[in-house]
Design goal:
By secondary structure, the chain is an alpha/beta fold. It contains seven helices and six strands. Helix 4 crosses helix 5. The relative contact order is 0.19.
Length: 209
């Protein structure tokens, strides 16, 4: 699969790159994609939710009224869950939501996601670029040139580039990552994938094993 290499003005440079069919043209495995996205979303949960139960509430443990003869239900401590300000019954407790997923399944899911985007013709290859200083205005100019101004876009770099990353950080619809940080969720969540030339080798070598 060959794609033309564009510059940051959106014009063809006259060069083409050959994208590996083993990464960008496989039959997508929907179940692998589901498992990887499910794991990613589960890992976003902090799991720090907590409600105080009866034993953790500050309050007197004195029996608030006699057991019999009041005409109402028996009651013990004021910390009882049936009273206002009492402990919560079966409240949420801290929990680890992380899930284990086989590395081969994760690779298959990412290749499937890239193949889906490739079939949708939503992948662009752009020559490596840099900014003299971090400026959101410069990054917006690149988005306009590539026709991605009002679309969700994912830029994949070969190596971390602080100027490009900081220039994109204030833009809600765009994200800049390196090839080692790519995930199935981020691929599918974007309308367009912008691969910088320097990211191709690392991306393909990580996914073809």
């Amino acid at each position: 699969m060959k794609l033309a290499v564009l510059d940051i003005k959106g014009k063809e440079t006259g060069r083409k790159v050959d994208l590996s069919d083993a990464v960008f043209a496989i039959e997508p495995n929907e179940h692998a994609v589901y498992l990887d996205v499910k794991q990613y979303l589960a890992h976003q949960r902090q799991g720090t939710h907590k409600a105080k139960e009866r034993a953790e509430i500050a309050g007197s443990t004195r029996k608030i009224k006699k057991q019999k003869g009041t005409g109402t239900a028996r009651a013990g401590s004021i910390k009882s869950p049936i009273f206002r300000g009492g402990g919560r019954i079966f409240g949420p407790r801290p929990k680890d939501y992380t899930q284990k997923l086989n590395k081969n399944v994760k690779r298959l899911a990412r290749k499937s996601a890239l193949s889906i985007k490739s079939k949708e013709e939503a992948i662009l290859v752009v020559e490596d670029f840099n900014f003299d200083a971090p400026k959101t205005k410069d990054f917006v100019g690149v988005l306009k040139s590539l026709g991605l101004e009002n679309k969700k876009s994912l830029f994949v770099l070969g190596d971390s580039n602080n100027s490009v990353y900081l220039s994109s950080r204030n833009l809600k619809g765009s994200e800049v990552i390196t090839s080692s940080e790519i995930s199935t969720y981020k691929i599918l969540n974007a309308n367009n994938i912008v691969l910088l030339e320097g990211a191709l080798e690392g991306l393909e070598s990580n996914l073809i094993k």
